[in-house]
From TrEMBL:
Keywords: c-di-GMP, Cell membrane, Hydrolase, Membrane, Transmembrane, Transmembrane helix. GO terms for molecular function: cyclic-guanylate-specific phosphodiesterase activity. The chain holds residues 240 to 518 of 518 of the full protein. It comes from the Bacteria. It is found in: Cell membrane. GO terms for cellular component: plasma membrane. It is a multi-pass membrane protein. This is cyclic-guanylate-specific phosphodiesterase.
């Protein structure tokens, strides 16, 4: 019995998927158990006013913490979670964690917001909206402090997405298109969606200082977002040069390692208190 198991492990190692071979079940089996045992935590990346560094909120970013003490990046399990449907209970756990971690801060500081990432299916069906509503009940958190981030993959069925967005705004939430520029970004559909904010993908911010072709695309995205009166958030700002460029182009908000990495809740609360009144 041990031999086939050993061979099996060796084969799995050749595949190079370390977190898979370390474990005994299939990745899906492991993820199912993780959901049942609630092995997820949330880190918070500050969203700041670029010009001043003033923190205005945070994006909730999920991590998987298995019992072995490691911390797994969402890129390693979100695709499987999405294809298996496990993303829905994971999203629900993220919402619960956000309220537990930051509920008090959000309830006492009405100017702060928290951004939550939705999966494509929830954008299409709106399933998550009553889940959020219920989680906010009796917490003192106002719906306008909740920003829902969704990538273009959620907009494949544009009518369904429109219905969800309309409902979300009726409930008081804000909606942001995430990773903008990486999908099939057609301007025509952007105009027809009731959005509040647009997040420019990191890949465009990366090339602001190096690649003039891409920075002209970035310029176009900024102009378009302004025409549509969307709040603009730049993702993945790593250099002061990028921050200065964005400020010059009138982009108000951003997030990135220049300001802060995603951090545990307690660290975020400290960061927020220290920077919310920055000049
Ligand atoms: P995203 O929504 O675009 O989140 C931003 C990602 O960029 C985060 O990666 C963040 O750590 C990273 N990042 C931010 N600033 C910088 C920077 O200056 N430099 C670099 N190199 N990276 C930066 P993370 O936390 O690994 O999350 C990856 C993706 O996983 C997220 O991309 C999002 O699409 C997805 N994700 C995370 N949490 C959730 C969740 O609760 N639900 C769903 N559906 N997806 C999630
Ligand atoms: Mg996001
Ligand atoms: Mg993003
Ligand atoms: Mg991104």
């Amino acid at each position: 019995l041990l031999v086939p198991f050993g061979i099996c492990m060796a084969l799995l190692n050749i595949g190079g998927i370390v977190w898979f071979s370390r474990r005994r079940l299939s990745p899906l089996g492991e993820l199912q158990i993780a959901v049942r045992r609630r092995e997820f935590i949330v880190h918070y990346q500050p969203i700041v006013e670029i010009r001043t560094g003033r923190c205005v909120g945070a994006e909730a970013l999920v991590r998987w913490r298995p019992p072995d003490g490691s911390l797994l990046s969402p890129d390693l399990f979100i695709p499987l979670a999405e294809s298996s449907g496990l993303i829905k209970p994971i999203t629900d756990q993220v919402i619960t964690l956000v309220v537990a971690d930051l509920g008090q801060l959000l309830a006492t500081d009405r100017s702060m917001h928290i951004a939550i990432n939705l999966c494509a299916e929830d954008v299409a069906t709106g399933r998550v909206l009553p889940v959020i509503e219920k989680a906010l009940r009796n917490t003192g958190i106002q719906p306008d402090q909740i920003w829902l981030e969704m990538t273009e993959r959620g907009f494949i069925d544009i009518d369904a997405a429109c219905t969800t967005l309309t409902r979300a705004r009726e409930l008081g939430y804000s909606a942001a298109i995430d990773d903008f520029g990486t999908g099939y970004s057609r301007l025509s559909y952007l105009e027809s969606l009731p959005l509040d904010a647009l997040k420019i993908d990191k890949s465009f911010i990366d090339t602001i200082d190096t690649d003039s072709a891409t920075s002209s695309v970035t310029s176009h995205i900024i102009d378009m977002a302004k025409t549509l009166k969307l709040v603009i958030v730049a993702e993945g700002i790593e250099s002061q040069y990028q921050a200065d460029y964005l400020t010059k182009r009138g982009v108000e908000y951003g997030q990135g390692w220049l300001f802060a990495r995603p951090i545990p809740a307690e660290e975020f609360v400290d960061y927020y208190q220290k920077t919310k009144t920055a000049a």
